[in-house]
Amino acid sequence: MSAAPGPFSAIVLAGGRSSRFGRDKLAEPLAGRPLLDHAVRSVAGVARDVVILGPGLPVSSPAGSMAVPRGVTVRFVPDAEPFAGPLVALAAGLVVLALARRRAWPLAAAAATLVAGVAFASVFTSVAPETHFFPEEIAFQEEQARLKGGLPAGNGTISLAEPSIRSHLRSLREDAEEVVRHPQGFGLGNAGAVARRTDETLLAGESNLTEIGAQVGLGGLALFLAWSLALLAGLVRVARRRDEATSWAAAGVAASLAAVLALAVQTDAVGVPWLAFCLWWLGGALVVPAAASLRAPAPARARGKGATTLRAE
To answer: pTM, whole model, 2 decimals?
Structure first.
């Protein structure tokens, strides 16, 4: 490792739930140090500024226990949208934009998004760069292979049997079953990022929908969905009006809302406060005035040019 890092910055992606690993993989010891430390020390040899990006706190203090060269700054930045998967959500937003504006090009963009995403996932394992491991890492992987057997079934990165996809679907199913078993909910703070920050037992964390259901019950979840879908329908109606400025704004917010609601099925997108507050506020700010203008009585109009009103004396 170089003793004089260059004038570069590096980002260490430390996300993931470690669901397949079975425990926090960042804290897993390798040659006497956590795996996260090894990654940080490697990039600290060439970068003067190292940023650790992840959904939770690092396993060791960046300013203390990590052995990095003198003059290297290591910072931790919490991931604003942990575990997000935007491909299908982006396509859903584009479809809503097409419906709201009655345009064909967003549909083509949605199809292109899905095709490009699936194509990239299909060929990624063939075109991706090779990973090089340290001898200690190879020894650890061989030990795990002996303990756990061969690779799990599932060919390709888009197969439902692929380990990552299977683990996400299993977590989603388990969270949904927990909500159904306890339809009254467990109260606020028992799911999602809040439970992680307060060291509560995590009752749901795979989906915003199951997180809401685990906290406020099936009734609260139904109310949230009804409110969100009503707001989405109102935005689509506003987008189809003839006022170009308002209609384009409503169409954009409708597409964004649809994308976030799609993301919420599998991720914690709505749990990002600024996103939820701003998006729902913008939606209401566009829908409420439009609805009020439709309810207002139309001004009296003359029945004909030069028409007069006769009043009986």
So the answer is: 0.57
